[in-house]
Amino acid sequence: MSGVLAGRTALVTGSSRGIGRAIAQRLASEGATVVVTARGTTPSVSIREGKATTIPGSLEETVELIEAAGGKALPIPADLEDAEALDTLVDRVVDEVGSIDILVNNAGFADYASIEKMSPATFDRTMAHYLRVPFLLSQAAIPHMRKRGGGWIVNIGSSTGLSPIRPFRDYNKTSGDVIYASAKAALHRFTQGLAAEVVDDNIAVNVVGPSTAIMTPGAAALLPEGYDTEPVEYLVETVLAMCTLPAEERTGHVAFSLHFPWHEKLEVKSLDGCETLPPLEPPSWANPNIAPSGL
């Protein structure tokens, strides 16, 4: 472990499980004090198609994993669909820890349905999670980062935000991911525009998305049976890479988690930072709209 983030504070949303938890673990392994947030400290209920399902994972478990590996973590529950909780989250982080250097907008909501069948409520909720929430949290974090002389914002994107492969695959015809993908495309463009606005403040803003897909408790119900997924560690290492360089050197990118480490010959570590994982080449069937460099 290099300790490259020693003395830094990171806020990772949606970190009770899955990708958010993995990001929190890896940032903590490099010395960051990580504030983890989700709707509550215990496993949360997910609503899809009007049905409630409790998905495993809690903030308490995330904190325990980080502390067991020698890291520092603080849970601050916040329901990002609650206006007051959203508006006060960054200030609560600064009040508790004293600063915020890194913001990872990972929390999300996905309830796939075809355009014909999707409810307006699901449309609104999806767009709010992937655009309005990153907008408001970034807006709140930027003044604090500016006072610190810089910072890093990483938004979790998706290859679905790129143009679909042609001829259209059966997945695109049947998955019902169009609104989710549209929200991710908007998030990519939001990131690039915000990067230009704050580059002179030494605040880097980047997107990191899976080159394929990552199997998480939340994604399991959305991915087709037998879908080839990738280990989360490669995405997490790419997130870490986006939190280490000054904005003038790396900002405004949409990076993909197998392509970028492979092209850059990036050493990918385990979530605790103690082991080195083997290089993993992007599969030939990945979206061809991803540049070989992953950027």
TrEMBL record:
Q: Localized where? A: Secreted, Cell wall
What reaction is this protein's catalytic activity?
a (3R)-hydroxyacyl-[ACP] + NADP(+) = a 3-oxoacyl-[ACP] + NADPH + H(+)
Chief subcellular location equals: secreted
Q: Which residues form a coiled coil?
A: none
Record-annotated Ketoreductase domain positions:
8-211
Per the UniProt record, the source organism is: Rhodococcus chondri
Q: Does the keyword Secreted apply?
A: yes
Q: What is this protein called?
A: 3-oxoacyl-[acyl-carrier-protein] reductase MabA
- What PANTHER family does this protein map onto? 3-OXOACYL-(ACYL-CARRIER-PROTEIN) REDUCTASE, 3-OXOACYL-[ACYL-CARRIER-PROTEIN] REDUCTASE FABG
Question: What SMART domains does this protein's entry cite?
Answer: PKS_KR (SM00822)
Protein family: Belongs to the short-chain dehydrogenases/reductases (SDR) family.
Task: Give the keywords, sorted.
Answer: Cell wall, Secreted
Keyword Secreted (UniProt): yes
Show the Pfam families listed in the entry: adh_short (PF00106)
